Amino acid sequence: MQQTLSLSVSERHLIEKRLEAKRLKEQRLCFQQKAQQNAPKYATNATLRARHQTGRDKRLIIRHLGERLARVALAHESQKPTKVTIQRNSKVVEPQIPVVEPETDKEFIDEERERFGPAHRPPRTKKTNVWAQICMKEKEAEELEEKKEKEKRKLAAVELYEELSKQEMEKRMQKRADRKDMEKYAVETGNQYNAWKEAEKERERVEQIKLQKEAKLRQEELQDAMSQQKKRIERQRKFEMLAVERAKRQLDEEKALRETKKEKERDQVRRIREENIKSIQTRREQKIRDQEEDIQLQQQAAALLDKRERERQEELASIRAKQTQRTRLALLHVKTPEERAKEDEEKSRRIQARLEQQEVEQSQAREKKRKEALQYQMRGIQQQKEERRQQFQEERMREEEYAKECKKQYDEWKIKQYREFVAKREKEIGYKEIVKQQMQQDKVRMQREETDGMSRVEVALNTKLLNDLGLMNKV
Predict the structure, then answer these.
(1) What are the structural domain ranges in the chain?
(2) What is the pTM of this model?
(3) 3-state secondary structure of 2
């Protein structure tokens, strides 16, 4: 991943304003330095222009006076006038002096004699300043070269400004593209996370529906088992009532005892029923509180109850078969009423003791069965809680690993962005250093130049050239 400097909009505007102010200040200082460097040149050029202008005016006066004096001199000469020219290297070229007839110019000659006298010599010609002409030409060539250099520097500055503007634009476009990539990556990450959350929610919803269906099925199975148990209890009660009635018919003396037993049995059945109802209510409440944890436990508890009930029914059936067999055997042997009464009394005591023993054993078995069911249920609840805790820890660990992976990728991207930013900044600093070096070289070169626009090397070369031409002494 790449890393970039995070700046707000106001901070970016402030940085741009500071950079623009710094650039304008540097440009203003550069213009001031150039103006200070060019001020002596402008003064020298103005002085030279004034000097050249003064010389030109003087040359015009000398030319006019020369023409008039030539006309006066030619009036006293009989020979044909010749063509008069000035020395070489002079910019002023005199025209040919026309022939003046004595008859036509007599008045003019008289006027000249009155002003200058009979003897007048022509004006002396002034030697031209070769050094001034060379300097003027070199000055013009240097001004032309300087103008070309200025144009070149101006074009180079424009190209550099365009290049810097292009780089700035590319930088902004790259930043914008990087920002878009970062936003796109953030959106994709968020979409992936949302999709994962939606999938988890859908999976949980499917599991919840599945658990609800299983719970409903187990509830129906439990209700069926309870209805069957109630039927078995009712059938058993009927069988016991028939047995009691049969014993009542046989044993009139034990009627009260049997009635008491019957009431006890009814109380016991009522108590068992109440206990069953309370147990069922408790299970229902437990199932409402935690339906997911009670599904398997209810199934196992129902299976255990069915097994114990079958065992009890089998035991009762065996007891009833033995009692029937004993009754049949007793009917085969006819005894006296006293013996029968004594046997019946003994038999009733044994039956009573056996029934009491059976009731005690059954109560102990029920209590033991209830405790085992509760222990089994508690173990199932603890096991389900442990499984849920492990599942929660595994999901939490997966989420932490996913978050760490995302953070690692984001850190790598930030580091890459920062490295690219540092490389671009170093490249820009290198460009700025090159421009500063060029400007410093131009400044040093301008400082080395003299006030007349020529460097010391150029002055030495021009002096040597004039000495070789033999014009230095004349100048």
Answers:
(1) 8-128
(2) 0.21
(3) coil
